[in-house]
Design brief:
The protein has 180 residues and is an all-alpha fold. The protein has two domains: 103 residues; 61 residues, no CATH class. 61% of the residues lie in helices and 0% in strands. The protein is elongated and about 65 Å long.
Length: 180
């Protein structure tokens, strides 16, 4: 909430106009998706977890300028948004805008640490999204198999497997952050 109070609306939709068509069906706000991307990275969340936070947390809704009853968006919109940024060569625009706004507010000073290139961050996020899709596909297939032929899976499952593989694929960040 302090971020919005200090910086105001950080991103506007027109900043990303070149990556989105003027016509067509209504979509999620590119400015809001940019801010969710920043929050997602800052909190170490998956796309699914970030979309859940938009629906559930009042502080995120306040920061995004959303109504309390706003339904949010499907998590796949975030990876589509990142793909559009990369396709149009504007993937660093988010970082540039945040740095500029923070500098104008006196939150950054000259001569500080050199900023990193966002290309490796985008590649890491893309890899994590692919891992989530593969993991969720495997989980869904095993659930169907367990419901269809439960006797086949039962001898293969022991307590060690349940402990190791029982968590949802998109819960890795919470487990990793506790362990790390």
């Amino acid at each position: 909430m302090r971020i919005r109070d200090a910086l105001g609306p950080v991103f506007t939709d027109d900043m990303f106009a070149e990556a989105f068509p003027a016509g067509g069906r209504p979509a999620a706000s590119p400015g809001a998706l940019a801010l969710v991307s920043v929050l997602r990275y800052a909190e170490g969340l998956s796309d699914r977890q970030a979309a859940d936070q938009v629906r559930a947390r009042m502080d995120w809704k306040y920061l995004l300028g959303l109504e309390l009853d706003d339904p949010g968006f499907d998590f796949t919109v975030l990876s589509d948004f990142r793909a559009r940024l990369v396709k149009h060569g504007i993937e660093e625009k988010i970082l540039d805008v945040v740095l500029d706004r923070c500098a104008r507010q006196g939150l950054l000073r000259a001569g500080g640490r050199q900023r990193t290139d966002s290309t490796h961050v985008l590649a890491a996020v893309r890899t994590l999204n692919r891992m989530e899709f593969v993991g969720e596909t495997l989980r869904a297939a095993l659930e169907v198999l367990a419901a269809t032929v439960p006797g086949w899976l039962t001898p293969l499952i022991d307590a060690g497997r349940v402990e190791r593989y029982g968590a949802r694929v998109d819960s890795y960040t919470r487990t990793w952050r506790r362990a790390g």
